[in-house]
Design goal:
Length: 297
């Protein structure tokens, strides 16, 4: 039996199990009575045995009909939660947004962005995925997340993106370092310094590697870390220097933050898959992010 052909008739069988009266069942499921009668006959023909027999003005489910009605009830019970999820997914006020972003953005930027959106869309649910840039971009490529907030935005024909804000890149040195009293630092000044970098796969590492390569400098890597705050701590301990962004809070004692000459920055963008239709809630969140001037940093 063709499952797709049978599926619309499950509700009729379920209703008949509760009220063996074709006219009332037709009214309940919103179909003409002749249509319900025809469906019941077609189901019987497909099964090779009737599913109902007439008893006066009513009908009675046969044993085969009762078994099929019980199966219909179980199938609908399993299907209804999924239908509710689909309805919510298609409703911009009840859907779900899965956002991937860098660890550092979880301190204040992403909470601010989500809070502002939830003020207008209080029933939208969120899945928040934090990871290194490479991992976030790969999850976006695989369709595991709806939107990615990373720096720099991913390139490639499969991605769409828009710039949200940029952050100035600076040099962080111990307060006792020879460069600590200078007004600004050139990349060339770091050529023979022990550098503390983020691991490969992080957006800031990609940016700094590209900057050194463009300047013709081979960095002398002393340490690699997965956390910006760990990098700051290692610098404060006098173990090297780093290219970072300015600290959101008061930096650890023993550090100096110095501007780069010429000025450099990293660009944060919101990215999505071009050819994958976005559910209404995701589209609404994307528009909120792109138009939220308070989020520009």
């Amino acid at each position: 039996m063709d499952e797709l052909e049978l599926a619309p008739k499950l509700a009729v069988l379920k209703a008949l199990a509760a009220d063996e009266h074709v006219t009332r069942v037709a009214e309940r499921v919103g179909l003409p009575q002749p249509t319900v009668s025809r469906w019941l006959a077609e189901i019987g023909e497909q099964l090779g045995a009737p599913v109902v027999v007439k008893t006066g003005r009513r009908v009675r489910l046969t044993r085969a009909g009762r078994l099929l009605a019980d199966a219909a009830a179980r199938s609908l019970a399993a299907l209804e939660p999924g239908l509710r999820e689909v309805e919510e997914e298609l409703d911009p006020e009840k859907g779900r947004v899965v956002l991937g972003f860098l660890h550092m953005l979880g301190r204040s930027l992403v909470p601010e962005l989500v809070r502002g959106f939830r003020a207008e869309h209080p029933h939208v649910r969120f899945g928040l995925i934090q990871n290194a840039r490479a991992a976030v971009v790969e999850k976006l490529r695989q369709g595991e997340i709806d939107l990615a907030l990373v720096a720099p935005p991913p390139e490639g024909p499969e991605f769409g993106s828009a710039v949200l804000f940029e952050q100035e890149l600076i040099v962080v040195v111990p307060s006792t370092h020879r460069l600590a009293t200078t007004k600004s630092v050139r990349l060339k000044d770091l050529e023979h310094e022990d550098l503390i970098l983020l691991e490969h796969g992080y957006g800031l590492r990609q940016i700094t590697d590209d900057m050194f390569a463009a300047a013709g400098i081979t960095p002398r890597t002393a340490f690699e870390s997965q956390e910006i705050e760990t990098v700051r701590g290692l610098v404060a301990a006098g173990l090297g220097v780093a290219l970072l962004t300015r600290a959101e809070t008061t930096p650890p004692a023993g550090l100096r933050e110095l501007p780069l000459t010429p000025r450099a920055s990293r660009v944060f963008g919101l990215a999505w898959l071009k050819d994958q239709p976005l559910p209404p809630a995701v589209r609404a969140f994307r528009e909120h992010a792109l138009s939220n001037h308070d989020f520009q940093r």
